[in-house]
Amino acid sequence: MKRLINQRPSTGMALMLGLLPFVLLLLLYMAGSDARLAENPADKLLPSFGQMGDAIQRMAFEPSKRTGEYLLWADTASSLSRLGLGMLIAALLGLVLGILTGALPLVSAATSPLLTVVSLIPPLAILPVLFIVFGLGEVSKVALIAIGITPFIARDIQRRTREIPSEQLVKAQTLGANTSQIICRVLLPQIMPRLIEAVRLSLGAGWLFLIAAEAIAATEGLGYRIFLVRRYMAMDVILPYVAWITLLAFLIDLVLARLSCLIFPWQSKGAQ
């Protein structure tokens, strides 16, 4: 008898098993929504898919009477610009700090303790400080994402840098390479795939910091809209927005994964 631990699903079965939880959740939601709406047609907790479709039509394809904007797309553009800029700053800072602390013992001795302490500070706890220092504009929101993500990326890059075999560094020095040449031509090419992976792993936290900042102080954005309409218990807007954020996060992660395979094909082959 074949043990369960050794059984591998076929491609088709793997797809079916992957879709099954989503189908069950949808059926469960539809049953709960129909039951609540049958008892109270004005119930807002579990809107029907028709009600959510009407909300999407209103938010995405009808201009706002107040601003004339298509709110879903305006909110999406604002949130993605903040997230993208914050993640870019975090990636650059994390790469520099990670490589320097991982490759240079003197730099590591001076900055690693501080990096460790900063990584232990809950970023949301300093959000009021950022609002006081930078104001309620875009800078404070981008700064929250960058401050929250940079220590994670830096420590991950630091660890990966230290895992590179010392024999490679010795060979480079034997061939006459100086410190900057070793960092740029030996370490950096091997670290870049890991940087993309670190950014992918930190995207969830980036979204968390973004939504939190937009919920507190913003005039547009996905997080702002969700916390604005919650006053009216507008679940027909909140649930599609949450689903849209999830889809955006999935697409960004997919793009980064494809980009890594395209730029560093040797890395993906080595992982197989």
Give a quick summary of the entry.
Helices cover 79% and strands 0% of the residues. The protein has helices spanning 11-39, 49-61, 71-103, 105-120, 127-134, 138-163, 166-174, 179-216, 222-229, 235-263, 265-271.
Fold blueprint:
Elements: H1 11-39, H2 49-61, H3 71-103, H4 105-120, H5 127-134, H6 138-163, H7 166-174, H8 179-216, H9 222-229, H10 235-263, H11 265-271
Helix pairs in contact: 2-10, 3-4, 3-6, 3-8, 3-9, 4-6, 5-6, 6-8, 8-9, 8-10, 9-10, 10-11
Description:
This protein has helices at 11-39, 49-61, 71-103, 105-120, 127-134, 138-163, 166-174, 179-216, 222-229, 235-263, 265-271. The longest helix has 38 residues, at 179-216. The chain contains 11 helices and no strands. It has 272 residues and is an all-alpha fold. The chain has a domain at 74-219: MetI-like fold, CATH 1.10.3720.10.
Distance separating the two termini: 29 Å
| Stretches with pLDDT under 50, minimum 5 residues | none
Helix- and strand-based class? mainly alpha
Determine the mean pLDDT.
89
CATH homologous superfamily placement of the domain at 74-219: MetI-like
The level-1 CATH class of the domain at 74-219: Mainly Alpha
Features:
272 residues, mainly alpha, MetI-like fold, 11 helices
